[in-house]
Amino acid sequence: MGEAEQRYVQEAFITNWIAPLGPNVDGFEREVSEMTGARGAVALSSGTAGLHLALKLAGVGRGDTVFVSTLTFVASVNPILYEGAEPVFIDSDFETWNMSPKALERALVAARKEGRLPKAVMVVNLYGQSADMDPIIDLCERFGIPIIEDAAESLGATYKGKASGTLGEFGIYSFNGNKIITTSGGGMLVSDNAEALSKARYWATQSREPALHYEHSEVGYNYRMSNLLAGVGRGQLQQLENRISARRAVFDRYEQTLGNIEGVSFMPEANFGRSTRWLTALTINPHMTGIATTDLLRALADENIEARPVWKPMHLQPLLRKYDYFPHMPQYSVSDQLFKQGICLPSGTAMSVQDQGRVIDCISHHIRLSAKHAAI
Ligand SMILES: *Cc1c(COP(=O)(O)O)cnc(C)c1O
């Protein structure tokens, strides 16, 4: 947190705007739409709330299906279940780690054959990088399906010059504590469809009708962002470009020091745009390095270094195993492979070069050790 955040929050205190509306909410919405180029934005209590409202705007209801990236955090899928709809999981490709257009095409063709096209396709942009949107947009236009972009992890990323999150009908950002900028908890729904956004604003305020007495004719939600937290968000937004530079510098240091170890591969940055490198993610080939990711994660934990596997794909989750899954190729699942071999490294903006050196030393030490054992 910096001084700008404090100033905005203080202003909210002084003017006594502590409600889930007020000048900071309006300001934050305006600033996010200006920065992303979206026509409008609605500030919400979480990114998950944004996905929920986007699904409702796409008309998703009981018995419908929604296609969604399998390699993601469960928050992408839960709102589909809230509406009584069924997710169908789509694999990643190796170039972006995001939705595979090939798998999407197979899934759409199969769905049409069954006469059961999805109500929406939710594309997730992982670890700060956009999916390859053009082929995905072409497919969705061909089949007449709206796109929802889960850009919770990709605020500030670009795709062919456009802001990640603004390429579909609806996009959402998250300002949860772990994201590149944060309001401690919060989210934003963006779209060019002003009418849809006012509907979302209405649903997010308990579907309160414009009447003095409390009048309601639809189910509503308490999903608006508070004016205090929007103040934090406005201050944080001013830091976004600095954070992206810092995260990219963290990535570069990891890549320069670990990138030439055989069997270590970093998440590629596709040439269609800029990744924010929100998290540095890489894969460790156990045959080439002699070490399994689980053992490397344990070795890091032993030195009090917090690293994590790549997201466990949704089609492997006990909650979701019963739903359909379309892998990248009929006999080959990219996300399974990324989950088995992938690791996310500490990537915080505030991490010192010394701390990062400790992570790098630990990894190269353990890989060298395993290689030596293998040689013996
Ligand atoms: C964080 C995250 C969300 C959810 O955002 P919240 O603000 O925590 O509700 C959704 N999708 C992905 C991919 C995320 O990483």
UniProtKB/TrEMBL annotation:
The terms under GO molecular function for this entry are:
transaminase activity
Query: Which InterPro entries does this chain map to?
Result: DegT/StrS_aminotransferase, PyrdxlP-dep_Trfase, PyrdxlP-dep_Trfase_major, PyrdxlP-dep_Trfase_small
Q: Which UniProt keywords apply?
A: Aminotransferase, Pyridoxal phosphate, Transferase
Q: Which Pfam families match?
A: DegT_DnrJ_EryC1
Q: Which domain of life is it from?
A: Bacteria
Query: What residue stretch is flagged as signal peptide?
Result: none
Q: Is-annotated flag, keyword Transferase?
A: yes
Gene3D superfamilies given in the database record: Aspartate Aminotransferase, domain 1, Type I PLP-dependent aspartate aminotransferase-like (Major domain)
Q: Does the keyword Transferase apply?
A: yes
Which family would the database say this protein is a member of? Answer: Belongs to the DegT/DnrJ/EryC1 family.
Q: What is this protein called?
A: DegT/DnrJ/EryC1/StrS family aminotransferase
- Organism ancestry: Bacteria, Bacillati, Bacillota, Bacilli, Bacillales
